[in-house]
Amino acid sequence: MLTTPPRTFVSVPFFFLLFFSLPLSSLSQPSPSSSNSVYNSFLKCFSEKTKSPQSQITDNVFSQSNPSFSSVLRAYIRNARFNTSSTPKPTIIITPRSESHVSAAVTCSKTLNFLLKIRSGGHDYDGLSYISDKPFFILDLSNIRDVSVDIASNSAWLSAGATLGEVYYRIWEKSKVHGFPAGVCPTVGVGGHLSGGGYGNMLRKFGLSVDYVEDAKIVDVNGRVLDRKSMGEDLFWAITGGGGGSYGVVLGYKVKLVPVPPIVTVFRVEQYMDSGAVDMVYKWQSVGPKTDRNLFMRMLIQPVTRKKVKTVRASVVALFLGRADEVVALLRKEFPELGLKKENCTEMTWFQSALWWDNRVNATQVDPKVFLDRNLDTASFGKRKSDYVATAIPRNGIESLFKKMIELGKIGLVFNPYGGKMAEVAVNATPFPHRNKLFKIQYSVNWKENSAEIEKGYLNQAKVLYSFMTGFVSKNPRSAYFNYRDVDIGVNDHGVNSYKEGEVYGRKYFGENFDRLVKIKTAVDPGNFFRNEQSIPTLKNAKETLLPEPGKAKRWSRAGGATVVATVVLHVF
C-alpha cells in the first residue's frame, strides 16, 4: 500500500502575478552576482550537511566562474546540439563522490529552490539530464563509478556513474564465461540505462537489463539513502524501467550476472536495393523475432550513394551465442535471403564481441582496457526517435520506405528484434510495456556541421520519416522507448496541466504502467521536486510544489530559436 509522506506548508501573506516576454536562455542564466550568492549559499549548506570543511568540497561544487566549469559540463554532453554557446547552462555543477554528497546535494538544491538535473553518462539523446529553460543545477554522478563483481554469487554492484564498458571490463577481469545483458555502447551510464529498462544484443536470450536487478539504492526527496527493503517494492519497481530521475537519485544497482559460452559468433552481411535488400528486410521480420533465442540480428537501413547512384543499404549485424557452423546451418534453412556463409562469421569470446559491436577493428587483438576510456567531450550532432512494430510491414511498404529514405537523403533506421525471452515476461513485471512487439525501430541521424540551418534540416528529416511510418507502427498509443528520449512526442511544463501533458508522452513510453508510476511518484515526491521535461507527473490533487510554479514554456531549441511569452504565478502555500 502506497502512503503519502506528511507535507509541510509555509504560509506567506502575498502572491504576485508577473507577465513577461524573454528569450528562454535568459531564464536559466542568473546574473554573475546572483550566481555567486547562490554558490556561496549552496557551499555553506553542502558543508553543513556533509560535515566537511568548505575547503574539502570545492573540488566537487563548480560555479560558472570556476575555470573547470566548462570542461566539467562538456565532459558528459554526448550530443553536440546541446554543447553550444547559446545552450542554457547550470548555475552550479555538483560532482559527488559519496552517498552523503548526493544526499546533501538533494537537500541543498531543494532548500535553494533550484531544479536539479541528474546526469550519469550523458547519453540522454535530447539533453534532458543536463539542460533546462529554468534556473538549474546539474548533479553529475560520473565519480560514483564503483563496479564490484562477485563471481561466487553470480552478482555485481553497478554504481550509477559507471559506464557499460567499465561493467563489461570488470566482469571480464573475473570470468570469461559470465556477462550482463545491457547495451552495446560502452560509454553509456549505468544509472540512466538501467532505470529506463536497458537492453542489448542478448535481450532475446535473457530479456532486459532490469530483469536481473536484485537490489538498488536511491536518495529520496528528503535526502534519505534507501535500499530495496527500505524503499519498498513499489518504488523499486518504478526505478527498474520507469526512469530514475522522477523519484530520486539512483545510486546504483545490484544485478545478477548471466552465463555466456566460451565462444560466440558475430557477423555482418550487407545488401543493396538492386541485389535483394527489399526481400532480405521483408523476410527478416518473420525470422529475426522468431528464430533461435541465442541469435540477435539487428537490421540497419541507410540511404547511401553507390557507383554515383542513390540507393539503400540494408545490413544485418548479429551476435550468436554459439559456434559459426551452427548459425550458418540455422540461417541457411530459415533465412536463405540473407546468404550467410561461414566466411562472413568470426568466432571470439563474449567480451571480444562487445568490442566488435563497438566497431573495434580486429576485436580479438584489441586491448580490453579501451573499455575504460570514457571518450570525454567527443560528441557529434544527432537526433533519435523510436517506434514499435506489432505486425510485419508488407513488402510494398518496405519498397516505399526505401524510396522515401532516398528522397530524404540521410536519416537511417535500426530494427531491433524482440521475441524469445522478451515475450515471456509480463508487460507489467517492470514499467517497460513493449515486450510483445515484433521489433523496435530507432530513427538515427548524425552530422558534423555546427549550423542551426543544417540542424533544422536534419531534424525535419527525422520528423518526416516518423510521419511516413505512421501506418506501419503501433497505435493507441504509438509506442516509444523511454531511453530514446524524444521531446517531439511531448513535454511537460509542470503547471496546472501537468498530468495531461505527462500523460501524452507517458502513455507512449509506459502504456498502462503509466498509471502505477504516477501513483508511486505522487507518494514518494508529492512536491514534484524531481522533474524534467518528460518526468512522471504527480496526480492532479497533489498541486503543492517546492519550486516556483512555472508558466507556459517552450522546450529550448537552437534550431527553433524559441522565446517565451508567459504568465507566471509565484506562490508558496
TrEMBL record:
InterPro entries: BBE, FAD-bd_PCMH, FAD-bd_PCMH-like_sf, FAD-bd_PCMH_sub1, FAD-bd_PCMH_sub2, Oxid_FAD_bind_N. It comes from the Eukaryota. GO terms for molecular function: FAD binding; oxidoreductase activity. Its main location: secreted. Residues 86-260 form the FAD-binding PCMH-type domain. Belongs to the oxygen-dependent FAD-linked oxidoreductase family. Pfam families: BBE, FAD_binding_4. It comes from Arabidopsis arenosa. This is FAD-binding PCMH-type domain-containing protein. Its cofactor is FAD. Residues 1-28 form the signal peptide. It is found in: Secreted, Cell wall. Keywords: Cell wall, Disulfide bond, FAD, Flavoprotein, Glycoprotein, Nucleotide-binding, Oxidoreductase, Secreted, Signal. Coiled coil: none annotated.
